[in-house]
Amino acid sequence: MPVALDDPFLLTLAGGLFMAAGIAVVRHRWLSRGARGVGLLIAGWIIVLAAFAVLGAAWGAEMGTTYAVGLLSLVAYTLIVVTHERRTAKIRNARETAYDPAVRSTNWRRGIAKSLLAIVLAGVAAIGVGVALAVALPFPPQDRAVIGGLMVPILWGGGMAWTLSDPRLVRATLILLAISAAGYGIAFLPKVLT
Amino acid sequence: MQDAVRQKARKRPFLPPEFVRAMLAGHSALGIAFAALIYVVCISGTLAVFLHELYRWEQPDAPVVTQPLTPDAVAAAVSGAYEKALAAGAVHDIFVLGPNPVQKRVIVHFHDHESGVEGDWLADETGTLVAPSHTPWSEFVANLHMHLHLPRTWGLFLVGLTGVALLSSLISGLLSHPRLFKDAFALRRGGARRLEQADLHNRLGVWGLPFHVVVSTTGALLGLSTLVVGVLALAAYDGDSEKAFATILGPMASEDETAAPLPDVANMIRQVQARHPDAVFASVTIQHIAKAGQVVHVGMRTPGHLAMANTYYFDGTGRWLGDGGLETGSIGKQILGALQPLHFGWFGGFAVKIGYGLLGLAMTVVTATGITIWLARRRAAGRPAPRWENVWSGVMWGQPFAIAAVAVAVLLTDAASIAVSTYLVVTVVAIAGALALPDAFAAGRLLRAVSGVALLAMIGLHARAWGVQPADPVATAVNIAMGASAAMLIGSALVPWRRARMRVSANGL
Known about the structure:
The structure holds 2 protein chains of 2 kinds.
Chain A: H1 8-32, H2 38-82, E1 85-86, H3 108-136, H4 141-165, H5 169-193
Helix pairs in contact in A: 1-2, 3-4, 3-5
Chain B: H1 2-10, H2 17-48, H3 51-58, H4 71-88, E1 93-97, E2 106-111, E3 118-123, E4 129-132, H5 136-147, H6 152-175, E5 188-189, H7 193-207, H8 209-236, H9 241-249, H10 265-275, E6 280-287, E7 295-301, E8 310-315, E9 320-323, H11 331-344, H12 350-380, H13 386-413, H14 419-436, H15 440-466, H16 473-493, H17 497-507
Antiparallel strand pairs in B: 1-2, 1-6, 2-3, 3-4, 6-7, 7-8, 8-9
Helix pairs in contact in B: 2-5, 2-6, 2-12, 2-13, 3-5, 3-16, 4-10, 5-13, 6-8, 7-12, 8-9, 8-11, 12-13, 13-14, 13-15, 14-15, 15-16
């Protein structure tokens, strides 16, 4: 009985094998730890891309790409767990000189100000920009609303990360206020003009 | 030699140390502030991936429907739901969900948002309503994940904000990881506790990044949608949120309350199938049923898409009003259709659920180890916080115990009303008990053991109610999974005491 090469099961199997092989090649290069082996690194990622293509052929671009992204994580997890290193206590090496967080003098007022910046003002600015995009992007209303809405958590998360790491509160406040003014200005301008 | 030294000095790190230290400070602050919330949302979300299986575990005698419903079966289900809604005095909106690749039941829901009366029934393959849905524990898990059992609007907002905090942690975590490539595959167990936990945290965080970003972004958007659409409505729709939502979700029912016949849903499904022969029924929502202003949204699924279905709009007379484009429309429409399936892993089938379960568990571990690393760092710097170590152990291992204890309480009493209070009491007792124990390791061991025992009690009580081999094989599979989890929890609590003590004294936690 002939085997159909476009059979989704066979293609999925092939995609999984490609993914495992690609990640294994990338890990092999990683083990060498030197400047050599860039070719291996590139080859490994090309094989991973081939896995995306094969899974795309099996399930269509939309589903296949999604499956491949999930599979990439799971294959890497599996490889990491299978190849984990067992150590005994008291072993130290160079990697253990990891960075520590910056130590900053702080107090309650500064803590509250930072929280307000990261949670409230960054949120206000992100919603302002998101709504501005939902109003002003040159797309149909539904697309504008979804893309603008999707940008809100991304911008808010980015703003939160930045304000919490930036020690200069005044600078962060001024920038977020400026972004908020621009966002809400663009969002409400058509309404004001009419 | 000097040249080599100079060359080494010129080599700049991937990220400047000061930048990394600043990012780490922000990452730590955010983690400390939101860790418990993120942890609860992650652990309940991991369970929520398997919500349909939990429904079947909780009510294993209800019909399982494997084939898509026929148009006539859908019409029968709508008619049955209308009669039940009439009897309950809740005739307003009706929703019927048919079987699909991720769930195999016919679920019928009616509610009247003015009176707050609602009802849930299960139907068979002919659309006949056969039993009220009774899944209080699964509903508890779903609502814990979606709004933490807070008033809905506030709870959704808080969970949305938690998603933003998680996304922010991913960004700052990535930017504070200068050894991203150097340690790409390193997982070293044993040795210093902090570095062991850091390896686990970083490997699971980095390689699962696409999943973590997708789940946190979609979760944040789902939670914050009311707030964002509210502001959008102020800017572009004269403050009318319903109008703004209608732009995104399709036409809404008008306020014309004149009596009208029930919509001919079977004919609507046939209309869609005439245009798309490969489309099968997924769901139907009827707003303001049996009123002149009623609107029908028919969900029909075609293969090869992330969206659960595309939505087709009709008025009460069966007139075609367009479709949502969720499967093949523009990019915004397709994103809208993919939001929920991508967030919960509800596409593709059970294999995807397993993958999502593992990745969700990884995200839960990343959250838990984040705080463990912070506490271990304090201990290593000579500033141990033993009480916080105990509290975090109480939060981490208290959650599986609390969620399992809710199931035990519900199985014992058959009362949904007891769920939230049981959860809160057990959560507080777990943290207080952890504080009373000598160290975090002992607290973790004890809570893992009682979580395992609670899971075994769940299985025992389920067997008492439904027998050792329930009618639905999925219920047996869930029992086996719970038994395996119980074995792992109890097994991990039985680590030889001497070895555990040695590790605590050497590394803390």
